[in-house]
Amino acid sequence: MRLSQFFLPTLKETPSEAQIVSHRLMLRAGMVRQLSAGIYSWLPLGYRVLKKIEQIVREEQDAIGCNELLMPTIQPAELWQESGRYEDYGLEMLRITDRHDRNILFGPTNEEVITDIFRKEVKSYKQVPQLLYHIQWKFRDEIRPRFGVMRGREFLMKDAYSFDIDYESSRHSYNKMFLAYCRTFSRLGVKAIPMVADTGPIGGDLSHEFIILAETGESEVFCDKTWLDKDLTGKGVDLNDRTNLEGWVQTTLADYAATDEKHEAENCPVSGDDLIATRGIEVGHIFHFGTKYSEPMGATVLGPDGKDVPVMMGSYGIGVSRLVGALIEASHDENGIVWPEEVAPFRVGLINLRTGDDACDAACEDIYGKLKNAKIDVLYDDRDMRAGGKFADMDLIGLPWQIVVGPKGLANGVVELKNRKTGERSEVTLEAALNQIGA
Amino acid sequence: MRLSQFFLPTLKETPSEAQIVSHRLMLRAGMVRQLSAGIYSWLPLGYRVLKKIEQIVREEQDAIGCNELLMPTIQPAELWQESGRYEDYGLEMLRITDRHDRNILFGPTNEEVITDIFRKEVKSYKQVPQLLYHIQWKFRDEIRPRFGVMRGREFLMKDAYSFDIDYESSRHSYNKMFLAYCRTFSRLGVKAIPMVADTGPIGGDLSHEFIILAETGESEVFCDKTWLDKDLTGKGVDLNDRTNLEGWVQTTLADYAATDEKHEAENCPVSGDDLIATRGIEVGHIFHFGTKYSEPMGATVLGPDGKDVPVMMGSYGIGVSRLVGALIEASHDENGIVWPEEVAPFRVGLINLRTGDDACDAACEDIYGKLKNAKIDVLYDDRDMRAGGKFADMDLIGLPWQIVVGPKGLANGVVELKNRKTGERSEVTLEAALNQIGA
User: Which of B42, B121, B154 has the CB atom closest to A9's CB atom?
Assistant: First the structure.
């Protein structure tokens, strides 16, 4: 992509309405613009990141055999009256009346709709387990939206639902999802630590929040420092072997990690330098809730003994749009964003120090073509403006690699290659630069 | 994908609520389920088709240099009051009041929001033309939703917007989009004919509806039969050469094509057998509307002469979810859907005639693995049920190729290869079958 043809309205000034660094940087980097309180338009740079995150989330859901579908944003009130949540949900639910005076709502979550789909189509124990997910915009009418996309009103969420015949099977579905979450966040280049969470009146131990450590996080968290170096990619785990998977989950969870809700200093098994006390951002939550929805809504299957049984369910959320902000909170410096490779909007930023100079233009076109041929996403700053502004913008938007092309270097047969994360710069031949980037 | 692990609730009975064939087939093939009037959940098979169409639409927008972003579904009423459409739009607009009693709405279209983004970020003639698009769910509260996804209330639409400094430049943007639309529909495997449409009080000739011929279409259309064989891929056209592109557009539009709104029998230049009179489904609309929004909303740029000028705009829509139904209307037979290759949810259906038979299972696993290795999407019917039901389901869901594996054939070293569109079947070796499919 040529920057001259890309819609990238960066800002030099720090917008006064932004209280936290991710919000400031997303506005400054031209990633989002607020349309009204807690509601954002995703400009091209931001939308590229959002889609990359979404795609990684999707691939890891697919990998555990979860089926993707798409439920609509608008839901009928009747389903929520059936589950008993229509009155309970409170003012965060955006309630709407359509032209025929029917009560509808903008879905804040989808337990009711997915249970309705399930109960109409699945009738026998032979058709479960079912794992279904979608990635869809939701709306929660937060009384005081803030922190940009981190606590917006309209937000993109992946929510999955499992349906099983009994607790053991449901626990296996939960464990699959636990593995998928560990792998998802590993691929996203962040450490999201699963912490025991409240199960409410349902009880049991099947509820975990995945939390990214960040000083700007919304809540206090505590964990064993062993988490920092723990490999969460689940290499070699056999998804379909219940015992093997359960073993891996238990081993992974053996080290201490708790939110302030669950943490009790006097009972904490870790202490001193081994205990990390910091803040965290919740980016995922997995939760087994048994028959909470299947019973009132009549989602039953015929068991092997010929009797109808309500299915055991779980729900599994990832805040996709929130993750964009959370990743920035976890990875930035004083000059801007530092994107992990997998979610960077482009892998390489190509800076032409002297647009209009024949040698510089020709060299840049050559590099641009080679990177495109190698299927490496590149943003080519071909704008006719001063070098200082180009450097600042490129650091601000945080692409992993920068190739800087100027007349002096070209005269010596070199370009400058900069690694955004380490800040390391080197003068190398074009071939060496492309090599290092992997082109 | 193994069918035993895929959520595909097909129906034998024809649902009584469906009046047109695409609606019936989408329900029977387990592609969608209605949640409430005009609002559908997209089940996995349907969602795969929707995403394939969306991706083709996206690629052709990107190819003309249109920048993708994403605007939210919920919009503030104020912007519509500025443009003057808040009162005009009528009951089709879903009007909402949030918890702070602010007037908001579920966007039925996005001219106001994109104009707002533009006016805040673009200030100079040097920053135009701008071509921006998004693919987002919209809501129109139709008084009587019907025909399934063809006239639903919540629907997926690609809408693009152009911003130019003057009419000539705006016309060039329009022509680029005209080319992108021709290419998009060609890739989708349907003939969508651009027909002159009403420009309302704005006048001029820059408004075309793209219409798929189908007897179940909503309106009468008339066109020269030369359209049927016309190549609309725009091969060799130079996007950036205004004259070249304008020439191609004019040549393409030289043959007669008009909706009943515009058709006048007595003035029609085509007659007799040369004139096709049938019905059509509108799947796209491109429209130049000048300064209709930029003037009231103050979307101006500083011209080269130092004076502010309101930008010339156009909008360009494609009904993405509607296209799923339209493609089925244009391509089905008495047994079910016949997908064009590019949008088929899977390219190949693999039928195991005797699940549980060692030889059949082994052969199918082998074929399944080979197709997956060749990156060919395959749906493997590994269910333990009678062959008749498998054949019927596979014809119903309309995958382009079927490979049928049974014990008799295997004994002779052959499988059956069926082309869904032509109905042609042949007994061939596995290698020959894979060859023909392109694996």
Answer: B121
